[in-house]
Design brief:
Structural class: alpha+beta
CATH architecture of the largest domain: 2-Layer Sandwich
Largest sheet: 12 strands, antiparallel
Order of helices and strands: EHEEEEEHEHEEHEEEH
Mean pLDDT: 93
Shape: globular
Distance between the termini: 29 Å
Number of strands: 12
Strand content: 35-45%
Oligomer: single chain
Number of helices: 5
Low-confidence stretches: none
CATH topology of the largest domain: Alpha-D-Glucose-1,6-Bisphosphate, Chain A, domain 4
Number of domains: 2
Length: about 230
């Protein structure tokens, strides 16, 4: 199963004890009232635990989706659960939300409001382009896909390379002179995972891993890249 996630940083560091205390017991309820569905929609944090340098939990949110039944659009409640982890490392706390980019962004904003009452204190993490380039060049034989952005060629927004031995091609050096590496897909030398990483710390593992392995990979190989 493909797993995706995104890393965020806290602009104002909190201790893991503070984070755990502020998240513990969080629960919000609202009423959904549309025939034939009358339900309470909950947003809550469950399964919260603190161990070592981690605070982990589940962000659970009730949503209304719509299905077509005999030509009628029917509202149907469902619960979406997303795993998250706050990780303390090298005098900073980073947040990992194990979901696709847009969902992860929304959950990071909700967690920010719970922790800080307002928005803007949990922001996107950033991997400098020169760091992502060095990360690729330290393991060039295992890189399979490279995308470049901020391209200075008129009317060209992005460039891409696919294949093995990308670093040894003239095109690679040419593309590096015209743009910055935005996204790479590579095989991790340490973990053996096939991984996609972007400069704004969106991480996708394409082979089968569980959430614990996914988090372990991010902590080991992605966190050191983050500015």
């Amino acid at each position: 199963m493909v797993l995706a996630g995104k890393v965020f940083r806290l602009r104002e560091n909190l201790t893991l004890s503070d984070i755990s205390a502020r998240l513990k017991g969080f629960r919000r309820e609202e009423t959904y009232d549309e025939e034939p569905v009358h339900v309470k929609l909950l947003t809550e944090i469950s399964g919260l635990s603190m161990k070592g340098n981690l605070v982990q939990g589940i962000f659970a949110q009730d949503m209304i989706t719509y299905v077509v039944h005999h030509g009628e659009r029917m509202p149907t409640p469902r619960t979406v659960e997303t795993s998250f982890a706050f990780v303390e490392q090298k005098n900073r706390v980073l947040l990992v939300v194990m979901e696709r980019k847009f969902v992860a962004n929304n959950i990071a904003n909700r967690l920010c409001e719970i922790l800080f009452v307002t928005s803007g204190y949990i922001t996107e993490a950033s991997i400098p382009p020169e760091v992502l380039k060095r990360f690729h060049e330290e393991n060039p034989e295992n890189s399979k896909v490279i995308f470049f952005d901020e391209v200075d060629i008129p009317n060209v927004n992005k460039l891409s390379l696919y294949g093995s031995g990308l670093m040894n091609t003239a095109l690679y050096n040419d593309y590096c002179s015209h743009g910055k590496i935005w996204y790479i897909v590579m095989t991790s030398r340490k973990h053996g995972n096939i991984v996609g990483i972007t400069r704004n710390a969106v991480v996708t593992i394409f082979n089968r891993v569980d959430k614990a392995e996914f988090l372990s990979y991010i902590i080991d190989e992605v966190f050191p890249l983050i500015q």
